[in-house]
Design brief:
The chain is an alpha+beta fold and 174 residues long. It is 29% helix and 30% strand. It has a five-stranded antiparallel beta sheet with strand order 3-2-1-4-5. β1 and β2 form a beta hairpin. It is globular and about 55 Å long. The two termini are 28 Å apart.
Protein backbone atom coordinates (compact mmCIF):
# COMPACT_ATOMS: atom_id res chain seq x y z
CA UNK A 1 0.00 0.00 0.00
CA UNK A 2 1.64 3.23 -1.15
CA UNK A 3 -1.10 5.46 0.30
CA UNK A 4 -0.39 8.35 2.62
CA UNK A 5 3.05 9.21 1.33
CA UNK A 6 4.70 5.79 1.85
CA UNK A 7 6.03 6.05 -1.68
CA UNK A 8 7.22 9.63 -1.25
CA UNK A 9 10.81 10.50 -0.37
CA UNK A 10 12.56 13.84 -0.68
CA UNK A 11 15.58 13.59 -2.95
CA UNK A 12 18.41 15.88 -3.82
CA UNK A 13 21.76 14.83 -5.27
CA UNK A 14 23.33 15.99 -1.99
CA UNK A 15 21.39 13.55 0.21
CA UNK A 16 21.30 10.42 -2.00
CA UNK A 17 23.14 9.01 -4.99
CA UNK A 18 21.11 7.82 -7.98
CA UNK A 19 21.99 4.20 -7.10
CA UNK A 20 20.59 4.79 -3.59
CA UNK A 21 17.39 6.18 -5.11
CA UNK A 22 17.02 3.08 -7.33
CA UNK A 23 17.60 0.81 -4.30
CA UNK A 24 15.01 2.74 -2.25
CA UNK A 25 12.44 2.45 -5.08
CA UNK A 26 13.03 -1.30 -5.37
CA UNK A 27 12.73 -1.79 -1.59
CA UNK A 28 9.55 0.31 -1.38
CA UNK A 29 7.93 -1.62 -4.24
CA UNK A 30 8.84 -4.97 -2.67
CA UNK A 31 7.47 -3.91 0.73
CA UNK A 32 4.24 -2.74 -0.93
CA UNK A 33 4.06 -6.04 -2.86
CA UNK A 34 3.67 -4.19 -6.16
CA UNK A 35 4.07 -6.55 -9.14
CA UNK A 36 7.01 -5.59 -11.33
CA UNK A 37 5.93 -3.42 -14.23
CA UNK A 38 2.64 -2.40 -12.54
CA UNK A 39 3.95 0.77 -10.93
CA UNK A 40 6.07 3.48 -12.45
CA UNK A 41 7.90 5.47 -9.79
CA UNK A 42 8.26 9.17 -10.39
CA UNK A 43 11.41 10.79 -9.10
CA UNK A 44 10.99 14.54 -8.82
CA UNK A 45 13.46 17.12 -7.67
CA UNK A 46 11.24 20.14 -7.07
CA UNK A 47 12.96 23.26 -5.92
CA UNK A 48 10.56 26.19 -6.14
CA UNK A 49 13.53 28.38 -6.96
CA UNK A 50 14.01 26.32 -10.11
CA UNK A 51 10.47 26.78 -11.45
CA UNK A 52 10.58 29.52 -14.08
CA UNK A 53 9.39 32.86 -12.77
CA UNK A 54 7.99 31.53 -9.47
CA UNK A 55 8.21 33.90 -6.52
CA UNK A 56 6.48 31.76 -3.87
CA UNK A 57 3.96 28.97 -3.25
CA UNK A 58 0.59 30.38 -2.21
CA UNK A 59 -1.17 27.11 -1.40
CA UNK A 60 -0.56 23.36 -1.59
CA UNK A 61 -3.81 21.47 -2.30
CA UNK A 62 -5.28 18.14 -3.31
CA UNK A 63 -8.16 18.24 -5.83
CA UNK A 64 -10.27 15.11 -5.31
CA UNK A 65 -12.73 13.58 -7.76
CA UNK A 66 -14.65 10.51 -8.81
CA UNK A 67 -13.87 9.56 -12.40
CA UNK A 68 -16.70 7.61 -14.00
CA UNK A 69 -17.92 6.46 -17.42
CA UNK A 70 -19.98 9.62 -17.93
CA UNK A 71 -17.43 12.15 -16.70
CA UNK A 72 -15.60 13.62 -13.71
CA UNK A 73 -17.28 14.74 -10.48
CA UNK A 74 -15.12 16.96 -8.27
CA UNK A 75 -15.74 15.95 -4.67
CA UNK A 76 -13.73 18.79 -3.17
CA UNK A 77 -10.36 20.28 -2.44
CA UNK A 78 -8.28 19.85 0.68
CA UNK A 79 -5.30 21.88 1.81
CA UNK A 80 -2.04 20.04 2.32
CA UNK A 81 0.13 21.17 5.16
CA UNK A 82 3.83 20.40 4.90
CA UNK A 83 6.89 21.20 6.93
CA UNK A 84 9.75 23.36 5.67
CA UNK A 85 11.24 20.33 3.86
CA UNK A 86 7.99 19.55 2.04
CA UNK A 87 7.08 16.51 4.19
CA UNK A 88 3.30 16.01 4.46
CA UNK A 89 1.93 16.80 7.94
CA UNK A 90 -1.85 16.78 7.50
CA UNK A 91 -4.80 17.95 5.46
CA UNK A 92 -7.28 20.68 6.12
CA UNK A 93 -10.35 22.26 4.60
CA UNK A 94 -10.43 25.63 2.88
CA UNK A 95 -12.04 27.98 5.43
CA UNK A 96 -11.11 31.53 4.54
CA UNK A 97 -12.39 33.39 1.51
CA UNK A 98 -8.84 33.32 0.09
CA UNK A 99 -8.38 29.58 0.65
CA UNK A 100 -11.73 28.91 -1.05
CA UNK A 101 -10.71 31.07 -4.02
CA UNK A 102 -7.41 29.17 -4.28
CA UNK A 103 -9.35 25.88 -4.16
CA UNK A 104 -11.56 26.97 -7.07
CA UNK A 105 -8.47 27.98 -9.03
CA UNK A 106 -6.83 24.59 -8.31
CA UNK A 107 -9.89 22.83 -9.73
CA UNK A 108 -9.37 24.77 -12.95
CA UNK A 109 -5.83 23.40 -13.23
CA UNK A 110 -6.62 19.81 -12.20
CA UNK A 111 -9.91 19.23 -14.06
CA UNK A 112 -8.38 18.97 -17.57
CA UNK A 113 -5.97 16.28 -16.30
CA UNK A 114 -8.84 14.38 -14.64
CA UNK A 115 -10.91 14.62 -17.83
CA UNK A 116 -7.99 13.28 -19.84
CA UNK A 117 -7.63 10.31 -17.45
CA UNK A 118 -11.37 9.67 -17.90
CA UNK A 119 -11.05 9.69 -21.71
CA UNK A 120 -8.14 7.24 -21.43
CA UNK A 121 -10.30 4.80 -19.48
CA UNK A 122 -9.47 5.44 -15.82
CA UNK A 123 -12.41 4.83 -13.46
CA UNK A 124 -12.36 5.37 -9.74
CA UNK A 125 -11.35 7.85 -7.09
CA UNK A 126 -8.50 10.24 -7.81
CA UNK A 127 -6.67 13.11 -6.21
CA UNK A 128 -4.28 15.51 -7.90
CA UNK A 129 -1.71 17.31 -5.75
CA UNK A 130 -1.56 20.89 -6.96
CA UNK A 131 0.41 23.94 -5.90
CA UNK A 132 -0.72 27.45 -6.68
CA UNK A 133 2.21 29.84 -7.07
CA UNK A 134 2.68 33.57 -7.27
CA UNK A 135 4.89 34.46 -10.21
CA UNK A 136 7.49 37.21 -10.26
CA UNK A 137 5.18 39.05 -12.68
CA UNK A 138 2.48 39.17 -9.98
CA UNK A 139 0.17 36.70 -11.74
CA UNK A 140 -0.56 33.16 -10.51
CA UNK A 141 0.03 29.73 -11.97
CA UNK A 142 -0.86 26.23 -10.87
CA UNK A 143 1.42 23.22 -11.10
CA UNK A 144 0.18 19.63 -10.98
CA UNK A 145 2.60 17.63 -8.85
CA UNK A 146 1.16 14.16 -8.56
CA UNK A 147 -1.83 12.06 -9.51
CA UNK A 148 -3.12 9.58 -6.91
CA UNK A 149 -5.48 6.97 -8.35
CA UNK A 150 -6.82 6.09 -4.91
CA UNK A 151 -8.42 7.54 -1.82
CA UNK A 152 -6.16 10.22 -0.39
CA UNK A 153 -5.14 10.77 3.22
CA UNK A 154 -7.61 13.68 3.51
CA UNK A 155 -10.53 11.92 1.76
CA UNK A 156 -12.16 10.97 5.08
CA UNK A 157 -11.95 14.59 6.24
CA UNK A 158 -13.57 15.78 3.01
CA UNK A 159 -16.30 13.11 3.22
CA UNK A 160 -17.05 14.02 6.82
CA UNK A 161 -17.33 17.72 5.94
CA UNK A 162 -19.89 16.89 3.24
CA UNK A 163 -21.91 14.73 5.65
CA UNK A 164 -21.86 17.31 8.46
CA UNK A 165 -22.66 20.10 6.00
CA UNK A 166 -25.68 18.18 4.72
CA UNK A 167 -26.92 17.48 8.26
CA UNK A 168 -26.55 21.15 9.25
CA UNK A 169 -27.85 22.50 5.96
CA UNK A 170 -24.69 24.42 5.17
CA UNK A 171 -22.77 24.34 1.88
CA UNK A 172 -19.81 22.02 1.53
CA UNK A 173 -16.25 23.10 0.84
CA UNK A 174 -15.24 23.46 -2.82
Amino acid sequence: NLAGGTGVKPYTPENMSFDEVKAWIKKTMQEAEVPEGKFVPIVMDIDIGQLPGVKRVLQNMNVQAIVGPKGVAITGVTLQRTDSNGHYINGGLPRTKQEKAYAQEAIGYALPALQRMQRQGYRGYAGIDTILCELVSGSRRGYLLEWNGRLNSSTSLLSMSHWVGKKLGVPSVP
